[in-house]
Amino acid sequence: MADLLLVHGSCHGAWCWRDLIPALEALGHEVRAIDLPSHGSDPTPVADVTLDSCRDTILDATSRNTIIVGHSWGGYPISAAAEAAPEAMRALVYLAAYVPQDGLSMVEMRRRAPRQTIHDAVEKSTDGQSYMFKPDKMHDLFYHDCPPKTVPYAFARLCPQAIAPQDTPLSLSDKFDRVPKAYIRTTKDRTIPTEYQEQMSHKAPEAMRHTIATSHSPFFAQPQKLADLLDKIAKDLPGSQV
């Protein structure tokens, strides 16, 4: 049995793991999902959200035995957590996620992708502090292969995404490097190009790189398949007793 902490991506919340959590629990794992600051039930004002506060929210929920799964933008705060306290976790799993390069922000990482996929799908708030995805773009961008009933479920819960933490560079050292890592690449992704994911996945050993034939939202599209992959990763980690 593994202890898994699930960390959502932009504009989402702990709610997005609704279908994955029972699938993982059925495999015998302990599973928790958290809301990052200003998301879900967290009351933090958007203007107060920082990369450090996202990092600290994750560290508050981990133990040295925790496998932290970060989706999409979630790859940044889980990496910041590993840099700050590598002893506070067992491993990182990047799920269709950004793996930071030293000194770059997530915004800079996104701009380095071989294809820009979201430039016409984003609408900034009038104060310039956050953004949302345009409703008419969401289905094709995130949920094009998900069961129809999940789309209205997600639409009703999406929230503004603070820009500041995504525009904050992250410095990394050997502390980050020594945390074991795995990557799950989504091969039908229309948000983060799958070829860019393949490039970023090389931060993990070859044996810990996996693919799933879904959109950017495998937790809705194929929750059982995703649970099986996470189960395999937990078992394949060095020193695993799962």
From TrEMBL:
<keyword id="KW-0808">Transferase</keyword>
<dbReference type="InterPro" id="IPR000073">
    <property type="entry name" value="AB_hydrolase_1"/>
</dbReference>
<dbReference type="InterPro" id="IPR029058">
    <property type="entry name" value="AB_hydrolase_fold"/>
</dbReference>
<protein>
    <submittedName>
        <fullName>Acetoin dehydrogenase E2 subunit dihydrolipoyllysine-residue acetyltransferase</fullName>
    </submittedName>
</protein>
<feature type="domain" description="AB hydrolase-1">
    <location>
        <begin position="4"/>
        <end position="228"/>
    </location>
</feature>
<dbReference type="InterPro" id="IPR052897">
    <property type="entry name" value="Sec-Metab_Biosynth_Hydrolase"/>
</dbReference>
<dbReference type="GO" id="GO:0016740">
    <property type="term" value="F:transferase activity"/>
</dbReference>
<dbReference type="Pfam" id="PF12697">
    <property type="entry name" value="Abhydrolase_6"/>
</dbReference>
